[in-house]
């Protein structure tokens, strides 16, 4: 019998076991700590698995992340170095992410939070100098599947869109930048900066005071806007608060945090120019993820190559 091992440390694993048993009839779906034949484990799926979950599995052929990110896997010091890691690329997840990014760019464009404040104060104030989307420059850090989809939808709304990637990449209709020099150029020309890159040693803490100092004034929307939908480890939260205080940042929309859940005593909760959401910008349908992973497993067993394999040297 083939076995799928579920390494889940952050969610209730039983619903995932049920989903995979439905998607892979005839397979045994097991959890760490249960008794099973470790030589029969062909594939594994994970989200924030306990340390060493995937060690000592001699016939393991692939490990699937149950979310778009894979940094949680590479934190495991006993992760097998010779087993491919596969990330989820699911249309449902991609669409939800783009909805979130476009929504907050439009809210920044139309100064929605400012008008919310006027409403609370019962003030009839019309900000006459209303820019169009075509006046506003959106820079996207990280131009993978999620970044490219968001870029296309922002362009359809009329925004000027540019992108940055670690290595050279061409994206139709988007001005692309890469490397350290390209990062400086993108940041200096972004009224709205959207962080969508993975968390790697190179990107950890990249959203800091040095970067914020390079942002333009973006006066048409009340100051530059930061949207982080990537990973909490990308941002220095003390630097975000300082940049908001100094005016280097006008607004911050944060879906991810250095510590999650966000501690109750964090000043981000109550800051008038910060929007906090609970890491839900792109929650995909669990049945859709299980179906995606099961489909990859069936195709791979039939001889097809794995799709969306992570390059461990780069962490994405």
Provide a quick synopsis of the model.
The protein has nine helices and twelve strands. The protein has helices at 13-23, 71-74, 91-109, 112-120, 145-156, 179-188, 209-212, 237-246, 286-301, and strands spanning 3-8, 28-30, 41-47, 62-65, 85-86, 137-141, 160-165, 175-178, 192-195, 225-228, 251-254, 274-276. Strand 9, helix 7 and strand 10 form a beta-alpha-beta unit.
Report on the architecture of this protein.
- The chain is α/β, with parallel strands linked by helices and 316 residues long.
- The protein has 2 domains: 106 residues, Rossmann fold (3-Layer(aba) Sandwich); 185 residues, NAD(P)-binding Rossmann-like Domain (Rossmann fold, 3-Layer(aba) Sandwich), CATH 3.40.50.720.
- Helices cover 30% and strands 16% of the residues.
- It contains 9 helices and 12 strands.
- The strands form 2 sheets. The chain has a 7-stranded parallel sheet, sandwiched between helices. Strands 2-1-3-4-5 form a 5-stranded parallel sheet, covered by helices on one side.
- Strand 10, helix 8 and strand 11 form a beta-alpha-beta unit.
- Helix 1 packs across helix 9 and helix 3 packs across helix 5.
- The protein starts with a strand and ends in a 15-residue tail after the last helix.
- The mean pLDDT is 95.
Order of helices and strands: EHEEEHEHHEHEEHEHEHEEH
Largest sheet: 7 strands, parallel
Strand content: 15-25%
The CATH topology of the largest domain, please? Rossmann fold
């Amino acid at each position: 019998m083939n076995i799928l091992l579920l390494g889940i440390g952050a969610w209730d694993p039983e619903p995932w076991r049920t989903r995979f048993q439905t998607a892979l009839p005839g397979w045994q779906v097991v959890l760490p700590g249960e008794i099973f034949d470790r030589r029969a484990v062909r594939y594994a799926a994970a989200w924030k698995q306990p340390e060493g979950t995937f060690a000592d599995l001699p016939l393991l052929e692939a490990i699937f992340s149950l979310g778009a990110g894979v940094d949680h896997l590479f934190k495991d010091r006993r992760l097998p170095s010779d087993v491919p890691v596969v990330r989820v690329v699911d249309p449902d997840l991609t669409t939800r992410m783009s909805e979130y990014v476009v929504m907050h760019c439009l809210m920044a464009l139309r100064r929605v939070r400012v008008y919310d404040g006027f409403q609370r104060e019962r003030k009839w104030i019309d900000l006459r100098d209303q820019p169009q989307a075509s006046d506003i420059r959106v820079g996207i850090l990280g131009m993978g599947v999620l970044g490219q989809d968001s870029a296309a939808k922002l362009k359809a709304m009329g925004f000027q869109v540019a992108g940055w990637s670690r290595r050279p990449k061409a994206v139709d209709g988007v001005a692309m930048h890469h490397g350290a020099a390209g990062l400086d150029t993108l940041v200096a020309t972004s009224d709205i900066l959207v962080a969508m890159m993975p968390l790697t040693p190179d990107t950890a803490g990249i959203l800091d005071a040095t970067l914020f100092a390079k942002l333009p004034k973006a006066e048409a929307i009340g100051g530059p806007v930061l949207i982080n939908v990537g990973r909490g480890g990308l941002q220095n939260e003390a630097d975000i608060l300082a940049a908001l205080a100094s005016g280097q940042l006008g607004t911050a929309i944060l879906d991810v945090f250095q510590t999650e859940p966000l501690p109750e005593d964090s000043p981000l909760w109550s800051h008038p120019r910060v929007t906090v959401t609970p890491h839900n910008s792109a929650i995909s349908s669990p049945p859709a993820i299980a179906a995606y992973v099961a489909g990859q497993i069936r195709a791979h067993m039939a001889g097809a190559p794995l799709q969306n394999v992570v390059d461990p040297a780069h962490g994405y």
